[in-house]
# Entry
Amino acid sequence: MKSQFNARDAAAFADDDLAMRVYTSRLLGSDENLVMHGGGNTSVKSTVKDFFGRTIDALLVKGSGWDLKTIEKPGFSALRLAETQMLAARDTLTDDDMAKQLRANLLDQASPSPSVEAILHAIMPFKFVDHTHADAVVTLTNNPRGEAIISALYPDCLVLPYIMPGFILSKQVYNAIQNQDLNQFKGIILLHHGVFTYADNARSAYENMVELVDRAETYISARLPAPTLAGARSDATNCDLQRLCAIRKSVCQIRGVAQIAMLDDSSAAVAFSQHDNIADLATRGPITPDHVIRAKRTACIFETDSPTDQQTTNEAERFAIDYRTYFGQHAGPELKMLDPAPRWGVWKKRGTLAFGNTPKDCNIIADLTRHTAQCIETGEALGGWEALPAKDIFELEYWVLEQMKLAKAGQPKPHQGKIAIVTGAASGIGLATALRLSEDGCVVVGLDVNPEVETKLNTDLLIGRRCDVTRETEVRAEVERAVRQFGGLDILVLNAGIFESGETIDALKHTWTSAIEINLTATQRVLRHSMGYLRMGYDASVIIVGSRNVTAPGAGAAAYSVSKAGVTQLGRVAALELADAGVRVNTIHPDAVFDTGIWTQEALEKSAARYGTTVDQYKKKNLLKREIASADVAAMISTVAGPVFAATTGAQIPIDGGNERVI
# Structure
């Protein structure tokens, strides 16, 4: 590990303590081997003005919810220094009282809640204090000879045994430094937890951290055999997608809500999953207790192939049984058990899995998993890997301060954790539907022959992919790609289509062929390649976008009307065929949706003139006299795919403002 401190860059912050604190905090946060996803904390002691303009000695410490990688000045909470230091002198302090007193010490009540390590930062007699969960150091402390190794490697550090974060840890450090001159040490090593460094200037505190961690990395590299990934391979065609869907569904059922399942089949992940004793390695515990909040204590082990019929429970159910046992062994009567579903898993010989509400959640868990696997393999190569006892992990998982964070999470969105495919997603109803499903929590893959779909849908929850639904190979590839990327398929919106009118039946040529191919055959094609995955979906639903023309056709629109009638009949049959798997299939029939690509201002004016009305009147030529927008149709689609329509399948639902001919 090398210092990334740049004196020229830092010179700009020389007269601003907090700006300098932000700068070196970001240096720490930029290295995943030091801290990950909100881990670690930093502080600076300085002076600030209170409401009355008085100069106050303050501790500016990282606030809850901020990440060192991207932290800014508002991410630091300013606490009255003297009052915060006084808390460490108390013999006891409950977690609830500590949280209340820290908030009471805030100079600005709008600040984020200060780090739970704020008291420890306050009592350190130095201006800058840095704290990380460095992989290399934690790996060594998780060795059976960890304490001896650390003591020999760090004679210039104060080494302390593991203890719970918060007041208890602050009190431990407070007692340890009462008769110590901390200037004789470069830092404090907390076994199974991490490293503290400190100095009166930001550079020294940061570079002490780098030097201590580099020392551990050098120790490891000198003793570690050359890595080998022999036999490990990542092969996209080797992934059993049905098995992946089954794994995801079992986790969803245990958690009681939909979950995305993201597979890491990199060479390193596959090599980890190929260990003969992987079921032991991945279930000993986390590399540091902090990870339990996001990833739970252990992985769930999934067999390479589906469990046999003789097995009465699947892997996720067995994980849940073990979790309930773990809870029962350590919980008091006042605690309520969290959901017992796994957050990460090892799919034997296939790689590792991350389960979460969103791709962002899964990516965080995947990062933790990757570092966990690396640390476990390193630890084993150095003579053994052992985590803290389950009781210590449990205490952090069910720590009241962590429970308070979870309580603030709020209600999940209606489609949170679900995976959807929407065809014809580059414009009009398809684009509006993709956006609405995303707002409601779905990760959406939008398909369209128009390449603009890739720029219009380009976020973590919205992925646009060019696909010609008339081409069998493209459809199959994109459906499989979506399933492989997110672990399954729950919502399918069949919207892609064309509208061409003006040809009477006796003049029909190209219009008939193209309408039947795109509106009907291509819809059947996408449905056919999706059905196997929908059967393994969670609360799965298919919504077909039909048309008012099915029940009230017009002259000159035979091709369009017949193709949409065929799609409607296809949906009715699909409802019959998918019902045994709990998959709902419903058709909605919009009419006169004018904010789509086929309706130009010129076309609107021409149609309005034909009816002898203004454009505004033409848009509202329904019984309710209201315009129907793509967003209205999208809202209906999202609702039909949700719990309100949980007992409805095979239905045809108009969204047309009321059409006299239909009624």
